[in-house]
């Protein structure tokens, strides 16, 4: 460790340094806290920070690593799989000892906050150093990150741009070196959109693979997944968080897979469907289209059998937004008028659209969703993977909450590739595949068959091996003239 | 990151008057007091970034003069007389980095643009004359030695000017804002760097940082504080100077030492400082007051629950002292107050920048923060007729509030609708100044209360009232009419004396 700032290390790199004694969790946590102190005012990736608790936790981890090294290193019994890795959690996920305010003035801060959601519990057990909560739009209601409570979260690649959303705080944090691991949530693209806009790796696992508690008011489109600087880090994190939890009645049985095993096996011989528009996207930015086509060319060069083909479904935008708006209406109807008055007007607009839907409308949407899921299960019999752009456009201008009433087109029209796979619940990731001329990241989406999370990670790792994940030009943000 | 251990020591034990008394009676020298202050700044400023200009040599010269005055006293009675004449004898004072002309302290206005100007004393604007206020500070015995940070042109409730290389931080939790625009003053005072700090307030800029950092901050009535000789009024009469303090007596003594219209002022002062100090001595014997409590937005919408609870607890303390509390909201719409105010502030920003550009050359694209540029462009677009129409709208609010105050002596509100924000929330990235101030989730949702007193011209004081669950101070505000300064000081003294103040 000479020139590299510990805040710029991946979790895998940090663990290797801890193992060899070249760096300690306290040093890494201090470096990350210094990065947060320097950049969070510009980016607002974190909406809650507990530096004292993080340092205490890092101190305990440092002692565990010292004991492990004294006992002959790599002794799994004394250190956890993420021991001492600075980690953040999106502010929609309950975390013991920290408020979960959901970007909203409607949430009472004076609560015990004594419950860990499954992912928070698993991360804590694995020894991760929990730094704080990352910013979200109110209740995760949009694909950008701004809220009445927190303000405007910004993109480390260009602070005039949005990091995307709704896990924009997690994405900005990981990209800016404010902790290499973060957990986000994804109900219509909310892990993949911000990971794509911020140049990270982001995975929406198969539904149920990473349990939730309490269950999202938006229902069975809502997934949890990692934001990381590398595919290997995501595999490492999945090993920790992909465990069943009985509080989530939809959680899948124990997955015995070690997601790191086979990660480097490559994609030779895999059947890959390449769909540049899914047959309906009309607004794909030319630079996004070109970068993704270039990445697909690399897949072919790596030995995959690539076929350009659309799965053959119609744009399910109205299914996604209809089910989403009903969820928003569910939350809204639980708020009293005083709370409704302080909610984000954009969220209020979603709720009002939800109010208009009848029970019959909703059941019809569920049936159409089922047909889509059936179609995709059959399609994935013919292909191992489906590849698309992650988002149709690069990051756009950041703005304050209350400027974009969430009608369907405004809400998701610019991200036509993400939400279908929330409906189908398939695993889907984004991996950076280039930059626009203006220097903004572009993401490639890799969709796997249901429960094929390991395959998605393996394919992403193959892309990463030939197209390394870029880091944002942070020196522009760090070197402010004095 | 939390620095709660550096927290302020409220009350009179370590206030500025106590320090001046120790200097006057020879316990310590002004030079020693300055050295201690400089050492604390050296230790704490790298974290807090509250002080942007320190001229130690200047401070030592002023401190030596104070020490010489003490040395010239032949007995205790002469020393006591010296302290009466110079109540802040030898007390180190930071002047806010937002103009306030002082011949020996240049100012950058929190702007990279103004910081490009190079002068004999360093970067920023230089002056050939002292403002009357600074003249009075010097006469009161203060040792001027530096400047405290301000957001660019003073137009943000959080002090995060790029000109200083990073934001100014709250000593109670460094991830949060120290408030603004007098955030440097508040951070420096609350962290114990100094014992008192100059500040000014055009839409809450004394009271917001006082609230964020657990301090006392009086915005005096319009016309009470001298603005000359270089200007007659600031932001169309919205803005006034004063101090952030640890004690009510510091606040009152500084008011007495510096208030009163100066020669040629455009308006007469609405009140007098005579009797202010005596009033705080007999605060408990003062008449009981009718106090209107507003614990929601003026429109009735709920504010943050912890802040609402804090102001209600504070009202109970007032009631326990025999004051009459009545739930009563001013008959106003928050945006009715803020919208014309924002336009006047934009005009003020444009006027200041045009003045700078005429003397020092035009500013480039990267010289101004986006929100400042937005304010400038808005100000440039507003016609004289529109400006005067805004003033008329603001003055109409004064008439409305005069009616409100027929049934209540004072108005009690929180200072802010929420606990202190995280740094970044009010950083000046937004190029649309009106959206920043009055957009759907603009500043008016965070700071709906403080501007009212700037608009009516009434006196208004921020007092520490509690802490949020994250340990951040919550302040409340008592607001009166023009000339109610002494009444506010007296009530604040009563609260302080009864142990009702504190974070």
Helix/strand layout:
The complex is a heterodimer of chains A (482) and B (503).
Chain A: H1 11-20, H2 25-43, E1 46-49, H3 51-70, E2 86-90, H4 118-125, E3 129-134, E4 146-147, E5 151-152, H5 168-175, E6 181-186, H6 192-198, E7 201-204, E8 223-228, H7 231-241, E9 271-274, H8 286-301, E10 305-308, H9 317-333, H10 337-341, H11 345-355, H12 359-382, E11 385-389, H13 408-412, H14 420-423, E12 428-435, E13 441-447, H15 453-466, H16 475-478
Parallel strand pairs in A: 2-3, 2-6, 9-10, 9-11
Antiparallel strand pairs in A: 1-3, 4-5, 6-8, 7-8, 7-12, 11-13, 12-13
Helix pairs in contact in A: 2-3, 5-6, 7-15, 9-11, 9-12
Chain B: H1 16-24, H2 30-48, E1 51-54, H3 56-71, H4 76-85, E2 92-96, H5 112-115, E3 118-119, E4 122-123, H6 132-139, E5 143-148, E6 169-170, E7 173-177, H7 183-190, E8 196-201, H8 207-213, E9 216-219, E10 240-245, H9 248-258, H10 276-281, E11 290-293, H11 305-320, E12 324-327, H12 334-360, H13 370-381, H14 384-407, E13 410-414, H15 433-438, H16 451-456, E14 460-467, E15 473-479, H17 485-497
Parallel strand pairs in B: 2-5, 11-12, 11-13
Antiparallel strand pairs in B: 1-5, 3-4, 6-7, 8-10, 9-10, 9-14, 13-15, 14-15
Structural features, described:
The complex is a heterodimer of chains A (482) and B (503). With 482 residues, chain A is α/β, with parallel strands linked by helices. Chain A is built from 16 helices and 13 strands. Chain A has helices spanning 11-20, 25-43, 51-70, 118-125, 168-175, 192-198, 231-241, 286-301, 317-333, 337-341, 345-355, 359-382, 408-412, 420-423, 453-466, 475-478, and strands spanning 46-49, 86-90, 129-134, 146-147, 151-152, 181-186, 201-204, 223-228, 271-274, 305-308, 385-389, 428-435, 441-447. Chain A has an eleven-stranded mixed β-sheet with strand order 1-3-2-6-8-7-12-13-11-9-10, sandwiched between helices. In chain A, strands 4-5 form a two-stranded antiparallel sheet. In chain A, strand 2, helix 4 and strand 3 (129-134) form a beta-alpha-beta unit. The longest helix of chain A is centred in the C-terminal third of the chain and has 24 residues, at 359-382. Chain B is an alpha+beta fold and 503 residues long. Mean pLDDT of chain B is 95; it is low at 1-10. At the A-B interface, helix 2, strand 1, strand 4, strand 5 and helix 10 of A face loops of B.
């Amino acid at each position: 460790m000479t020139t590299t700032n510990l805040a710029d290390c991946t979790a895998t790199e940090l663990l290797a340094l801890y193992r060899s004694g070249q760096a300690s969790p306290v040093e890494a946590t201090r470096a990350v806290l210094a990065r947060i102190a320097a950049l969070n005012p510009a980016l607002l990736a974190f909406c809650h920070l507990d530096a004292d608790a993080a340092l205490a936790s890092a101190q305990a981890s440092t002692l565990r690593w010292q004991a492990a090294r004294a006992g002959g290193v790599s002794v799994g019994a004394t250190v956890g799989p993420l021991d001492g890795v600075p980690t953040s959690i999106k502010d929609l996920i309950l975390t013991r000892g920290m408020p979960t305010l959901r970007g909203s003035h409607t949430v009472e801060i004076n609560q015990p906050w004594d419950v860990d959601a499954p992912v928070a519990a698993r991360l804590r057990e694995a020894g991760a150093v929990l730094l704080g909560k990352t910013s979200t739009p109110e209740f995760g209601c949009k694909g950008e990150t701004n809220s009445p409570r927190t303000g405007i979260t910004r993109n480390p690649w260009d602070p005039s741009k949005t990091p995307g959303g709704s896990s924009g705080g997690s994405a900005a944090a990981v990209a800016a070196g404010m902790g290499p691991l973060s957990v986000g949530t994804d109900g219509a693209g909310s892990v993949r959109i911000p990971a794509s806009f911020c140049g990270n790796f982001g995975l929406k696992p198969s539904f149920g693979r990473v349990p939730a508690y309490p269950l999202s008011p938006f229902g069975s489109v809502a997934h949890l997944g990692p934001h990381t600087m590398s595919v290997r880090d995501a595999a490492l994190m999945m090993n920790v968080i992909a465990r069943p939890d009985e509080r989530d009645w939809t959680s899948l049985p124990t997955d015995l897979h070690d997601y790191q095993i086979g990660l480097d096996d490559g994609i030779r011989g895999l059947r890959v469907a390449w769909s540049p528009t899914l047959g309906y996207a009309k607004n794909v930015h030319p630079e996004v289209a070109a970068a993704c086509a270039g990445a697909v060319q690399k897949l072919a060069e790596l030995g995959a059998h690539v076929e350009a083909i659309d799965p053959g479904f119609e744009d399910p935008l109205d299914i996604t937004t209809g089910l989403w708006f009903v969820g928003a209406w569910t939350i809204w109807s639980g708020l009293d008028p005083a709370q409704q008055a302080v909610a984000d007007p954009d969220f209020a607009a979603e709720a009002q659209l939800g109010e208009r839907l009848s029970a019959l409308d909703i059941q019809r949407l569920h049936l159409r969703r089922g047909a889509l899921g059936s179609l995709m299960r059959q399609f994935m019999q013919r292909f191992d993977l489906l590849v698309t752009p992650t988002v149709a456009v690069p990051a756009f201008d950041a703005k304050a909450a209350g400027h974009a009433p969430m009608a369907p087109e405004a809400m998701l029209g610019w991200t036509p590739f993400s939400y279908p796979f929330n409906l189908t619940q398939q695993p889907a990731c984004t991996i950076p595949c280039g930059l626009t001329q203006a220097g903004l990241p572009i993401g490639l989406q890799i969709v796997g068959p249901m429960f094929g999370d390991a395959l998605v990670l393996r394919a992403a790792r193959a892309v990463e091996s030939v197209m390394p994940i870029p880091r944002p030009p942070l020196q522009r943000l760090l070197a402010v003239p004095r | 990151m939390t620095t709660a251990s550096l927290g302020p020591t409220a009350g009179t034990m370590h206030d500025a008057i106590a320090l001046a008394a120790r200097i006057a009676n020879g316990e310590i020298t002004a030079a020693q007091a300055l050295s201690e202050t400089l050492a604390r700044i050296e230790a704490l400023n790298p974290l807090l970034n509250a002080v942007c200009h320190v001229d130690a040599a200047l401070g030592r010269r002023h401190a030596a003069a104070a020490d010489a005055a003490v040395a010239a006293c032949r007995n205790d009675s002469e020393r006591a007389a010296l302290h009466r004449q110079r109540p802040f004898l030898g007390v180190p004072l930071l002047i806010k980095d937002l103009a306030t002309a002082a011949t020996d302290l240049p100012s950058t206005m929190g702007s990279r643009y103004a910081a490009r100007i190079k002068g004999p004393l360093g970067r920023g604007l230089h002056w050939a004359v002292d403002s009357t206020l600074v003249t009075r500070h010097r006469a009161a015995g203060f040792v001027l030695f530096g400047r405290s940070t301000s957001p660019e042109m003073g137009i943000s409730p959080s002090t995060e000017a790029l000109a200083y290389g990073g934001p100014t931080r709250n000593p109670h939790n460094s991830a949060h804002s120290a408030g603004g625009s007098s955030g440097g003053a508040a951070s420096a005072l609350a962290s114990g760097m100094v014992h008192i700090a100059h500040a000014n307030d055009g839409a809450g800029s004394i009271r917001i940082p006082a609230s964020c950092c657990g301090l006392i901050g009086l915005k005096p009535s319009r016309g009470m504080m001298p603005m000359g000789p270089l200007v007659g009024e600031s932001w169309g009469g919205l803005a006034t100077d004063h101090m952030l303090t640890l004690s009510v007596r510091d606040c009152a003594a500084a008011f007495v030492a510096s208030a009163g219209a100066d020669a040629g002022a455009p308006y007469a002062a609405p009140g007098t400082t005579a009797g202010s100090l005596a009033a705080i001595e007999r605060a408990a014997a003062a008449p009981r007051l009718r106090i209107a409590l507003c614990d929601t937005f003026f429109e009735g919408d709920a504010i943050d629950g912890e802040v609402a609870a804090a102001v209600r607890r504070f009202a109970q303390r007032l009631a326990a002292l025999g004051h009459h509390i009545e739930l009563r909201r001013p008959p106003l719409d928050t945006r009715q107050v803020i919208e014309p105010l924002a336009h006047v502030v934009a005009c003020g920003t444009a006027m200041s920048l045009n003045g700078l550009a005429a003397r020092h050359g035009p500013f480039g694209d990267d010289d101004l923060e986006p929100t400042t540029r937005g304010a400038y462009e808005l100000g440039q677009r507003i016609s004289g007729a529109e400006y005067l129409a805004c003033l008329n709208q603001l003055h109409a609010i004064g008439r409305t509030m005069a009616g409100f105050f027929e049934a209540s002596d004072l108005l009690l509100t929180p200072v802010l609708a929420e606990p202190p924000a995280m740094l970044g929330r009010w950083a000046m990235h937004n190029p649309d100044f009106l959206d920043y101030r009055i957009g759907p989730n603009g500043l008016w949702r965070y700071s709906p209360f403080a501007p009212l007193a700037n608009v009516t011209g009434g006196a208004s004081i921020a007092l520490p009232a509690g802490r949020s669950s994250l340990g951040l101070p919550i302040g409340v505000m008592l607001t009166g009419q023009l000339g109610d300064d002494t009444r506010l000081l007296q009530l604040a003294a009563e609260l302080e004396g009864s142990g009702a103040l504190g974070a």
